[in-house]
Amino acid sequence: MNQDVLASVCFYATDIHTRSLGKGKNDNTLDRIGEIKGELLMGWGRQDPHIPLKGRAKIYNALTDNDVNFQWHEFNNAHAFLRDEGYRYDPASTQISNSMILELFNRKLGKGDA
User: Fold this and answer.
1) Where are the beta strands (DSSP E) in 1-114?
2) With contact defined as beta carbons under 8 Å apart, do 10 and 43 qualify?
3) What is the mean pLDDT of residues 69-87?
4) Considering the entire predicted model, what is its pTM?
5) Could you give the residue ranges of the DSSP H alpha helices within 1-114?
6) How far apart are CA 109 and CA 102, in angstroms?
């Protein structure tokens, strides 16, 4: 992980819980979570079939167990609810999410810790 990264945002992080990201579908993201030094904002859809409750719990517990500085937000939405097309799009959740993203980046990269 890049130690210079002060803030990151990740919505509906598919396949971290199954360790099936990337080439070979055998990644070590969960093992490396403790390397995250910047603040992390995570957003999820509770009705997302790609990341069920047990999968989200696995990621949440890994972040907590490794003392990562993170925000965790779950929305009553499906996967890709921020994508402004199709039936899954939720403009209200998108507005809330965008506000949280801008707040984090302004605080960590603007006049804040940077």
Assistant:
1) 7-11, 39-45, 70-75
2) yes
3) 96
4) 0.90
5) 29-32, 53-65, 91-109
6) 10
Which CATH number covers residue 34? 3.40.50.1820
User: How far is 5 from 56, CA to CA, in rounded Å?
Assistant: 23
Residue linked to tokens 């990201």: 21
Beta bridge partners, 65, equal: none
Residue 105 belongs to what domain range? Answer: 7-109
Tell me how crowded residue 59 is: count the other CB atoms within 10 A of its CB. 21
- The arithmetic mean of pLDDT across residues 14-26, rounded, is 87
Summarize pLDDT for 25-62 with one digit per residue, the tens. 888 999 999 999 999 999 999 999 999 999 999 999 99
- Residue 18 CB burial class (10 angstroms; 0-12, 13-18, ≥19): middle
Query: Could you tell me if residue 2 is inside a domain?
Result: no
